Amino acid sequence: MSNFILYNYYRSSTSYRVRIALNLKNIPFDYKSVHLLKNGGEQHFLDYKKLNPLEEVPTLVHNGKSIAQSLAVIEYLEEIQPQPTLFPNNAYSKAKIRQFCENINSFLHPLSNLKVLQKLESDLQYTSEQKNAWVQYWYGKGFQALEEMLIQFSGKYCFGDQITAADVLLVPCVFTAKRFQVNLDPFPLCRKVNDECLKHSAFAKAHPGQQPDTPESEKKSSS
Ligand SMILES: N[C@@H](CCC(=O)N[C@@H](CS)C(=O)NCC(=O)O)C(=O)O
């Protein structure tokens, strides 16, 4: 058994982030699936709530100690295993990488989160089409900001030619955008960097189409 246990869900983008970071840092982990829909959502189970009081995935347990919030987990992994670094270079570069990450983590992601969409459905009777339109509207705004940063900073990856935390967050965000049929045509650099990252084994191995809890019908390659 590994020292690291990751409680996560195959198509959760925040789980996908942590899987990529663990792979990039070559840290083996035990995969524990928390099904977000089955039985009313296993994230709401009493035992799991003790690990993650917000009732969300992912949660990393390292040597018996739990950490929630994917960015906090990624920063923790960076501290305990600094190489390869996900926050390279100088203070300014690190701050811009964090800015990019927060655009996804604080702005984009919460607007497409399951519980937000469930609330729109239960209280305002949103249909699937209306939920997609909601996500498409907000993702259009968020991706515009990401694209503008990439115009300034990208090379092969989001920030130059080295993989950083920005790539770790961008790829799962593109995956979610595709799930909700967001039009990514206006964001060529986001698409280009995403495609480049998916060629890397750490990203490919973490893809939602390849996980132990991926339903047979969704098992596929990392596109
Ligand atoms: N800021 C948190 C967000 C975690 C989060 O929202 N996870 C989603 C899946 S991507 C979740 O567990 N949702 C459960 C729900 O909405 O009931 C993080 O980065 O870890």
Describe the structure.
The protein has 223 residues and is α+β, with helices and mostly antiparallel strands. It has 2 domains: 4-84, 3-Layer(aba) Sandwich (Glutaredoxin), CATH 3.40.30.10; 91-204, Up-down Bundle (Glutathione S-transferase Yfyf (Class Pi), Chain A, domain 2). The protein is 53% helix and 8% strand. It has 9 helices and 4 strands. A 4-stranded mixed sheet has the order 2-1-3-4, covered by helices on one side. β1 (4-8), α1 (13-24) and β2 (30-33) form a beta-alpha-beta unit. α4 runs parallel beside α7 (165-179). The longest helix has 26 residues, at 128-153. The radius of gyration is 17 Å and the shape is globular. The chain starts with a strand and ends in a 17-residue tail after the last helix. Bound molecules: glutathione (GSH). The site of glutathione has 17 residues, from α1, α3 and α5.
Mean pLDDT value: 96
Structural class comes to alpha+beta
Euclidean distance between termini CA atoms? 31 Å
**Nearest-angstrom radius of gyration?**
17 Å
What is the second-level CATH architecture of the largest domain? Up-down Bundle
Percent of residues in beta strands: 5-15%
Per DSSP E runs of 2 or more residues, the count of β-strands stands at: 4
Low-confidence stretches: none
**Main sheet summary:** 4 strands, mixed
Features:
223 residues, alpha+beta, Glutaredoxin, Glutathione S-transferase Yfyf (Class Pi), Chain A, domain 2, 9 helices, globular, binds glutathione
Question: Helix and strand layout, with pairings?
Answer:
Layout: E1 4-8, H1 13-24, E2 30-33, H2 46-51, E3 59-62, E4 65-68, H3 70-80, H4 91-111, H5 114-124, H6 128-153, H7 165-179, H8 188-198, H9 201-206
Parallel strand pairs: 1-2
Antiparallel strand pairs: 1-3, 3-4
Helix pairs in contact: 1-3, 1-7, 4-6, 4-7, 7-8
Bound molecules: glutathione (GSH).
Glutathione binds next to α1, α3 and α5.
